[in-house]
From TrEMBL:
UniProt-recorded name of the protein: non-specific serine/threonine protein kinase
Protein kinase domain segment(s): 1-232
Organism the protein comes from: Ascaris lumbricoides
SUPFAM superfamilies linked: Protein kinase-like (PK-like)
Class of the enzyme per the UniProt entry, highest EC level: transferase
Family note: Belongs to the protein kinase superfamily. CMGC Ser/Thr protein kinase family.
PROSITE patterns found in the cross-reference section: PROTEIN_KINASE_DOM (PS50011), PROTEIN_KINASE_ST (PS00108)
């Protein structure tokens, strides 16, 4: 059984228990640490490519069909399944092990909430949804991006491709300001009523996810750092 099937069977679109999520987090991070040691990028981590054993306690990464040696990584805007694709791939920036860490973070959000973290219909919409949570990309990052002209103007304003609600035609809106409209902790909490210990664990989970989905991959938490995070270390 893979993780998506497990979610459908037991998560019932509301996700799994925090205890399971903590264990899965640790296992996936350990898998990433081993991949890094071997200089391998998986490049397609998502619930479908994570197997769960019969006891539901042990995970294994599968389907290395998109995998490659980190030295062979090439710019390709559609590498990794869209919902799990890191921003540096979409922008055409150099990438490495951080793309798998991003995919794990988005997967863990889905495992806990039962919802997709960034459900964009295109790379452009994905970038907009990411900024709704994390704020604008820095101008420095945008200027280095190989595919910047697809998503930003000369002044690094975001060019949002959307469908006009009245005419149903494609239109491009220039967004010079992007306000953060999403609250990660509120999304994780949902309608739960947690005790003090439950809130502490939720805040730790939020803190780790937030660090794992840092837009600038050079500032994103590393796998080794994530394994030392209180969410993973404290039970």
């Amino acid at each position: 059984m893979n993780l998506r099937e497990l979610l459908k069977k037991y998560g019932n679109n509301v996700g799994l228990h925090m205890k399971a999520v903590r264990s899965y987090t640790q296992q996936l991070l350990l898998a990433l640490r081993l991949l890094k040691k071997c200089s391998i990028l998986h490049a397609d981590i998502k619930p479908d490519n994570i197997l769960v054993n019969d006891t539901k306690l042990t995970l294994k990464l599968c389907d290395f069909g998109s995998g490659c040696h980190v030295a062979d990584a090439e710019l390709a805007p559609y590498l990794v399944s869209r919902f799990y694709r890191a921003p540096e791939i979409m922008l055409g920036l150099p990438y490495d092990f951080g793309i798998d860490l991003w995919s794990v973070a988005v997967t863990l959000y889905e495992v806990y909430t039962g919802k997709i973290m960034f459900a964009g219909k295109s790379n452009n919409q994905m970038l907009k949804f990411m900024m709704d949570l994390k704020g604008k990309f820095s101008n420095r990052l945008v200027r280095k991006a190989q595919f910047r002209d697809q998503h930003f103007d000369f002044n690094c304003n975001f060019l949002y491709h959307e469908v006009d609600k009245v005419t149903q035609r494609d239109k491009v809106t220039t967004l010079s300001v992007i306000r953060v409209t999403r609250d990660l902790e509120a999304e994780l909490l949902g309608e739960q009523e947690l005790d003090k210990d439950g809130r502490r664990k939720l805040e730790q989970f939020r803190s780790l996810l937030d660090a794992m989905v840092t837009l600038d991959s050079s500032k994103r938490i590393t796998c080794s750092e994530a394994l030392k995070h209180p969410f993973v270390v404290e039970k």
